[in-house]
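Standup, Tuesday
Yesterday: got the pipeline producing structure tokens again.
Today: sanity-check two examples.
Blockers: none.

Example 1:
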Amino acid sequence: MSSPLCHALLRNLNLFKPLSDAQLESALRGAQPCRLEAGAVVYHQGASAAHFFVLLSGCLKVAQVTPEGGQVVVRYVNPGDLFGLACAMRQPRYPATVLAVQESVCLAWPDALWERFTSHHPQLASLALQTMGQRLQDAHLRIQELSNDEVEQRVARAILRLVDSAGQPTADGIGIAFPITRQDIAEMTGTTLHTVSRLLSGWKQRGIVDSGRKRIVLRSPAALARVGAHAAAPTCAGCASCIDGAPGQAATTAGEP
């Protein structure tokens, strides 16, 4: 793991930017690169937690199977994210399945190296703790949304979070940078494929989003944020107050919630 290509990839990730060259070499000891084709499984829910990982490129989906046999999409893993941290929580098995949404590359360290990894590199230990704290906070937020919010709010907020974490400017607005289906959105928000399809179709008519096969583009972040904040959506069909400017201007609002 000392190739210039790997170092170049790592240097672009916030996780490793604080490290000196010597610290980076030390952190990489014992790491093995893994190249994943789209659809490949990194590990299965319930499997022995033998490794921890960082994603270098691509995108991964974290999903759990419920006792009733349904599937819940827990989150997406983006480049620079640590995952598979069962060892950090003293858990012997992975709590979810992780699979590649698109071609991806990650680094894997044996579980036995976790203590050395964190004790020798306090910056990485701190970021790992922040990662686990953020995921716990996100889980609490999703429980609150499922308990209190209407489905339209939940779907709107899920799309806004995806755009915030993995948005890319396009000619029409801000696209989610990886393939995502309506079924994925349904499994993230505790609703049905039919409901997500109906909502996206309605938002498309109003100029808020554009969607297609495994593709969602947000044309008006401000309008979708209002939907996420209020259960009752406007009944107009694409009025100026909903769209907040021409679609070509939407990319300039990428920083909005």
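Example 2:
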Amino acid sequence: MNKLKHLFMCLLAIGTVRHNLPCFVSVHLIPVSTPKNGMSSKSRKRIMPDPVTEPPVTDPVYEALLYCNIPSVAERSMEGHAPHHFKLVSVHVFIRHGDRYPLYVIPKTKRPEIDCTLVANRKPYHPKLEAFVSHMSKGSGASFESPLNSLPLYPNHPLCEMGELTQTGVVQHLQNGQLLRDIYLKKHKLLPNDWSADQLYLETTGKSRTLQSGLALLYGFLPDFDWKKIYFRHQPSALFCSGSCYCPVRNQYLEKEQRRQYLLRLKNSQLEKTYGEMAKIVDVPTKQLRAANPIDSMLCHFCHNVSFPCTRNGCVDMEHFKVIKTHQIEDERERREKKLYLGYSVLGAHPILNQTIGRMQRATEGRKEELFALYSAHDVTLSPVLSALGLSEARFPRFAARLIFELWQDREKPSEHSVRILYNGVDVTFHTSFCQDHHKRSPKPMCPLENLVRFVKRDMFVALGGSGTNYYDACHREEF
């Protein structure tokens, strides 16, 4: 039995990473302590370093398991937590699509055999899976903004197509939707039972995996919803910048960031050696193998417990995977230090953040439209938003990651509104750059909405230097 299969048999048997299990020794996964309350270490996972659950040193296999986000036990989440005198006014949800088939193929190897049909007796499973398929099959006449109306509403290929959402990805978002339903609808009554179409705002990029992820979450949130009330808008840009996408300085930051990535890779002799070994195994030039982005395919093998590919020259193995994954982690660490990505993120995230505070401000005026907003997006959407908010320690968005903005009203002072920011169920409000000092000056458990508005309208551009205090000036300044 190979190491990867051994690892996943252990993982599936226990549902999570536990302490001192010998089955993990063979792949050198560093064990973590079992929480006293019986909750799994995965469900207690924080996006910031936590000495209780964090391995003593960065372990690439541990990080990869978190990235896979394999559905197991229910997550412990902090969404919807507020003192009783606070009323929930609106919720804005940003998600990364769920688990998908690779976008790249390792040259001269067999594609991993993953079934993208939805099957009730195959793990991972969700109680609403069959009902989801049935409901999606009735939505062919639904109204979606073009070109979304040409996309399938759920995955349905016996051998997954490139980039296609898997059953794991559907289940991940059915779980997300049900979790949000229990909190926002059953507990806080965010939407009335007779909710109307204008109380939802739904937007997705033009990929089947994002549309299907959005529909899975929506079905978990509003089971058996009325198709006549559903309208997904199409967003051509992964940054969700709508009509504000032209930003020359943002592109300059991106070019400098890509140059930084390239130089870091050149310095990593172990990485280059690993690429060379893998290139010999598949009998292609090293440059060609690297261009094929092998980690994308290897993560699919890893997350689905499929053996890494072999040829007559040998096998790609776990050690190769660990070297490339470790480099990814090092790249993320240097990215935070060099700040080039922060510049890209501020300019990349501003349009969608500006849209969000606009909806919040309308809600504070008593408007009842767009009380629940859902953006179904990509890692390259969420990552800039996290960075722009100052959440530099946040992990790279895993499959089915969720970032949520909650707007609250103080019933005792109805003119006062506050926000909470949550990432994968963890309250990170006071880690953001616009509110990290607020709790030191105020006993209030949330951040004033005006802090977020001031940050988006003006303060977030301070990180860029220069004299620009608005989006247009920051995008077009010549001294960069």
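Quick observation on example 2: The chain has two domains: 77-243+341-476, 249-338. The longest helix spans residues 340-364.
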